[in-house]
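User: I'll paste a sequence; please echo it back and then give the predicted structure.

Assistant: Echoing your sequence first, then the prediction.
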Amino acid sequence: MARAKRHYIPGQIWHVTHRCHKREFLLKFARDRRRWLQWLYEARRRYGLVVLNYVVTSNHIHLLVVGGQERDVIPNSIKLIAGRTGQEFNQRKGRKGAFWEDRYHATAIEGGDHLFRCLVYIDLNIVRAGVVAHPSEWPFCGYNEIQEPRRKNVLIDYQRLTKLLGFDTYDEVKVHHKRWVDDYLENGRNTRDEKWTGSIAVGSQGFIEKVKSLMGALAIGRESMEAGDSYQLREPAVPYTAHFGGKKDDMGPENTYLWDVNL
C-alpha cells in the first residue's frame, strides 16, 4: 500500500503512539524500556523535541510532544528513539527483523482542558492494563517526573507544559495533575477512550475546524464528530487490538495519515 503523505502543523501538540512489531512484548525488560527513555532524552537534546508526557509499556509507547517550527523534529526524533532501541535489542538478542510497526500514530490535541485530559489518559495507561494500581508505581512514565521535577536528565519541558495547560505556576500544574489522576481512579473514570489514539485531532469544535482548514484539500472525506465533551476529526481505519497482558488494551486504530516515518 502506498505511504500516506505527512501533514505538518507548526507548534501543534501531538499524542504519539507506537507499537512493537506484530504486537509482541519486545519492551518487557526494564533495561529496554530504560533505553527507550535514554534515547528520548537524546532526541530532546539533539533535535529540541518538546516533551510533555510519556509512558513505555511492554509492547507500545505513548508520547505527548509539541511540534517545532521545523517539520522533521518529531519524525527524526521517533526515528532515532525507535531505531536505536530496536537495534540494541536485536544485537543483544541475536535477533533479526523489525522491532516496531513501521508507522506511528499521531493525534493533534488542543491545549488547555483537552491537553489535561490527554495527559492524565497517558498517565493511567499502565493502570488500565492492570499492571499497577497507580501510575506512581511505574517508573517508565512521566507521572513522577511531573510531580517531582528533575534537576538532571530532564525529559519534560515543565515551563511549556505550564503554559499550554493555562496555569501561571508549575506548582498549580502539580496540584491539579495529582487531583485529576486521583479523581479518575477514585470515581471509576479510568476507562479506555479510543478518541485519544484513533483520531486525527481532538479538541473543541473550533479547534477541529481549524485543523481541517490547515489540512486544506487533504481534509476531504475526514469526519468531524462529537466525542463526549470534545470533538474529534476521524478518517476511516481498520481497528486493531494491542493486548498488553490479558486484562485490557489501550491502542486504537492506526492513523497513518498525519505522520509517517521509515525506521
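Residues 73-93 form the longest helix (21 residues). The radius of gyration is 17 Å.
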